[in-house]
Amino acid sequence: MRAVYCVLLLLMLAGCNKNEVGDVSLGVFTTKDIKLDAIVDPVVTGVTCHVSSIEANLNLSDPSDSSIACRQTGPITADMIAKIDKSKNGEVLFSKSKSIFFKTMKIRRILDVENQTLMYLSYSTKETSGSFKHSLSTVPLWGTEAYGAVKVQD
Fold first, then answer.
1. Quick check: helix, strand or coil at residue 154?
2. pLDDT exceeds 50 at position 71
3. Which of 14, 91, 26 shows the shortest CA–CA distance to 65?
4. Residue 103 to residue 124: CA distance in whole angstroms
5. What pTM was estimated for this model as a whole?
6. Which of 110, 96, 98, 89 is nearest to 39 (CA)?
7. What are the residue boundaries of the structural domains of the chain, listed by start?
8. What is d(CA 66, CA 122) in angstroms, rounded to the nearest whole number?
9. Does the chain have fewer CB atoms within 10 Å around its N or its C terminus?
10. Backbone CA torsion sign across 77, 78, 79, 82
């Protein structure tokens, strides 16, 4: 009996997430929920991304679908932009396991210098039904102190 309680406690703790701001059940006869996370960019702290993804409790793998929406929620400064990775690959800001089989959902920030826009890409690291599931959101620097802080390289 003690083993059952331990397993239940572990399952409940596995569902705990400090970024979680919402949890929508998909019905009485399913163990799947839509989890809503809020992720504040650790460097560009004036940007918050909200990500929705499905978690299938008691399954070995969660669905790969996710959606992301990022908005300016505070100041974005030239100093913040100076500190970010400006490569075409950008940098991973968030990672969440979606399976015991090495599937992960990641959020990556990429700077589009030419259009003065931050791009936030949510994607799955495993192919599902012939596709790598992904979603994109952008935050323009227009109207912020950071606008024009990075110039296009000739």
1. coil
2. yes
3. 26
4. 7
5. 0.77
6. 96
7. 19-140
8. 7
9. C
10. positive
